[in-house]
Amino acid sequence: GVARVLDVLELFFQGGNYSLTDVSDRLHMPKSTTHSILHTLRRRGYVVCDEATKTYSLGLQAVARANTAPIVRLLQPRARLHLDRLAGRLGETALLLTVQAGFAIAIDMVESPRSLRYITTLGRPWPLYATGAGKLYLAQYEDDEVRALLADGLRPLTENTHVDVEPLLAELAQ
Questions:
Q1: Which residues contact 94 (CB under 8 A, 6 or more apart)?
Q2: Confidence check: pLDDT of 67 > 70
Q3: Are 72 and 124 in contact (CB under 8 A)?
Q4: Which of 42, 58, 126, 162 has the fewest Cβ atoms within 10 Å of its own Cβ atom?
Q5: Which helix (H) or strand (E) holds 49?
């Protein structure tokens, strides 16, 4: 029961919009179970449903809860001074990230004063191979270690996302 609810939430934290069938198929759950979980999550504000497309996406309640987690509340004030200094010194957006299960998760950010800015949603996980910050993190590892970290495969988020590890390794080596 609880594990299935967490599986659904983890799917939505990866980003994207999913229909009832999408969630059911991806998580190998009966549609009746999936429907019950989505109904409860929707009622509580953890997911929202687009009535036009009949797809669900992460709701504000889930984002709010992620941003008030004890570790986030502990780290944000301690890191803010450093983020402010870094953003001011470089003139670029400064991020405080954590890495979990192959995903980079922004837990605080100070935006660039420039008109072209790096924008991210705090608390939303992004695959390490699909973001500049994630690639910077991966660049510290040897090729075999990166292959092991990305053993589950690379799925495209945009037309420019690497879907094969070898071109990604070449980029990391630059």
A1: 82, 83, 84, 86, 87, 109, 110
A2: no
A3: no
A4: 42
A5: strand 47-50
